[in-house]
Amino acid sequence: MSYIKNHNLQINSILYEFINKEVLPGTNIESDDFWNKFEKVVHQLSPINKSLIQKREEIQKKIDEWHKNRKGKDLDKEEYTEFLKSISYIVEEKEEFNIETSNVDQEIASIAGPQLVVPVDNARYALNAANARWGSLYDALYGTDVIPGDKGKNFNEDRAKKVIAYVRNFLDEVAPLADTNWKKITDIKVKDKDLVFLSDKNESYLKNKNQFIGFNGEKDKPNSILIKNNNLHIDILIDPNNVIGKSDKASISNIILESALSTIIDNEDSVAAVDGEDKVKCYRNWLGLMKGNLTANMEKNEKKFIRKLNPNREYISKEGSKISLHGRALLLNRNVGHLMTNPAIILKDGSEIPEGIMDAFISTLCALHDFKNKNNSRTGSVYIVKPKMHGPEEVAFTNKLFEKVEEVLGIKKYSIKVGIMDEERRTTVNLKECIRQVKNRIVFINTGFLDRTGDEMHTSFEAGPMIFKGDMKKSKWLNAYEDWNVDIGLECGFSGKAQIGKGMWAMPDQMANMMEQKIGHPKSGANCAWVPSPTAATLHSIHYHKVNVFNEQNKIKLKNKARLEDILDIPKADRPNWSIQDINRELENNAQGILGYVVRWIDQGIGCSKVPDINNVGLMEDRATLRISSQHMANWLHHGICTKDQVMSVMKKMAKIVDKQNENDPAYFRSGRSGYKKMSDDFENSIAFTTACDLVFKGRVQPSGYTEPLLHEKRLKRKSI
User: Which end of the chain has a smaller Cβ tally under 10 Å, C or N?
Assistant: First the structure.
């Protein structure tokens, strides 16, 4: 790894060249001026960053000692709360306020819908996610288990009929007709600024004529009809020559739904970026998205093509004017948190740069290109999601960091907007005061329940053994936490101004279950929720057609607020009497997820993937799921629920199973990747296996239970071989 010295910094040569030759040109910022100002801010803020991380450790030690001193006693909630206040874990809540963020794009402020999260290091995934603003409902239904039965290898006409029937019922619900239903119509025309539907020679109209927005083609023979419901668009394609359209009474060939309104381009939990080379790969893809010129070479059905960002969608309004709808999701950038450092840049004292400081500068610097072309934000904003902050003081530091970035880059104050991941316990209990620190730039709060569960376990590690992982979703604290996030957001004036988000559906092959369960998110008052794929985004958008989120938010404002007391309810098992079979099953389940994820992270540099679980069900795994599983095993080990030998035996057993699951996985044989290396061939010398074990056996002493320090250390070791 080579470095270039510049203004008291040692900068990875690949990163240095990337910034100077690819990012800065076109920004009107000179190289020497940027590096000079950047260096000064980095050395000013790095000590503050370090002190905040130290404060986390000091607070955690106090909590650990408190629980140790009360071992065997029942938890007194009032005493516990007062203790947390005495150590400034819980801060005093101040006067009421409303957020004051301005210049926010409508996808965040006023439209409710699905949100994708995608690793930034994969250009193909990033492009697919950006283009997932619009998706075929026919394809999403036909290709998933929402429509029961096997679709087979060839076109299944019966299955297609079921898809069409499903969609007709959907249209009847969200865009009903006055005197008939969508199953009966035989023709659609545009007449006198209205849609006219023909059925048995009778004319009908939309019950709400205002839902008709525009069309394409001729009025007597439109090839596209644009309808709007709950601020979301539905594009009904009409083509009598299409294989579907020719068999349809009304010649409807497809239904295109506005799907992923926004996408988080992720630099954090779903990527494995451990050095300058990795970071440049991430930054380069983000730069391409901001310039609008990112491409990826693709091959499908033995045909090669280049994937690009989709253009805007053009229509004719019912008044005859032109309509242009954004063709891509609004892109947010998730930076890393405050904890991690990166060897991409070395400071004057020889230490690594805090990675979050580097991310803030470079992701915003790349976004300056969008300020000119408006391919992403039409309001001149750059959206940065900030994860893993602990309490108001750390949020205030983020605000200070963004102010410094704005000053150095010469952009308007509050151009950088912030999304707060509510995924650490100290942020949850102080959420209102966290929001107050960024009231002029906040656009997003999201319940990251996976990381939040990991922190719940680590914070209360000494309180006792934790309940089974599967029981966490039914626990008092988790339900209160989810409600609290919505309540606080609404209390601070988020409705119509900012997103209140919910977490990921982690089973990408189980769309039928998602359709049953995830409608709970808009009903809870959340105006966005995470999905794992463009297909899932299209299906989840149905929920936002059926539920008017902003009406739900108005109802929720009238209800009683979630209780802090319930959030502080520790999910420990007071009198565990579990069988050895149940304990081993839980250990095996945890070990399976850890090993399946870690082997890809260490050996292949894959930060997020669909990993088969113990039942061979593919689950989306990232560092958040890893954090839960490793902390859970470490907690049980610490409290004697299991022994070290027992855990090691389980790890070896599951490593063999993971090896078997992965041996024919094509991911390991694609271009640029070697074949799968079995952990079980040499446990002691397998970096992946020993890393997985360290995450468990050393899990107690990992900062906040995070997995990043060990993963980064071992991935760097693996890359050096």
Answer: C
What pLDDT score does 670 carry? 52
What's residue 671's pLDDT?
39
Q: Which residues does 649 contact at the CB level (< 8 Å), separation at least 6?
A: none
Catalytic residues: 334, 622
Contact 445, 415 (CB under 8 A): no
Local structure of 126: helix, strand or coil = helix
According to the model, what pLDDT value does residue 588 have? 97
**Which is it for the CA torsion 405, 409, 413, 415, positive or negative?**
negative
Q: Please give the distance of CA 85 from its chain centroid, rounded to a whole number.
A: 32
Indicate the length of the chain as a whole number. Answer: 721
Inter-helix orientation angle 355-373/276-291, to 10°: 20
Give every CB contact of residue 507 below 8 A, 6+ residues apart in sequence.
513, 514, 617, 618, 619, 620
pTM over 0.85: yes
What whole-number distance in Å separates Cα of residue 381 and Cα of residue 13?
30
Name residues whose C-beta falls within 8 Å of residue 515's C-beta, 6 or more positions apart in sequence. 146, 539, 542, 543
Query: Is 233 within 8 Å of 241 (Cβ atoms)?
Result: no
Contact 492, 437 (CB under 8 A): no
C-alpha of 681 from chain center: 35
Q: What is the pLDDT of residue 27?
A: 97
Q: How many CA atoms lie within 13 A of 452 on its CB side?
A: 28
Mark residue 292 as left, alpha or beta (left: phi above 0; alpha: psi -120 to 50; beta: remaining).
Answer: left
Q: Burial letters for 147-165: b for 16+ Cβ neighbours within 10 Å, e otherwise?
A: beeeeeeeebeebbebbbe
Q: Which residues of the chain have pLDDT under 70?
A: 667-674
DSSP string for 201-248: TEEE-BSSGGGEEEEEE-SSSEEEEEEEETTEEEEEEE-TTSTTGGGS
Nearest of 697, 581, 588, 583 to residue 650 by alpha carbon: 588
Q: Which domains are assigned to the chain?
A: 135-258 (2.170.170.11), 580-720 (1.20.1220.12)
Q: CB–CB of 356/336 below 8 Å?
A: yes
Angle, alpha carbons 129-131-136 (nearest 5°): 100
What is the sign, positive or negative, of the torsion defined by CA atoms of 413, 271, 520, 183?
A: positive
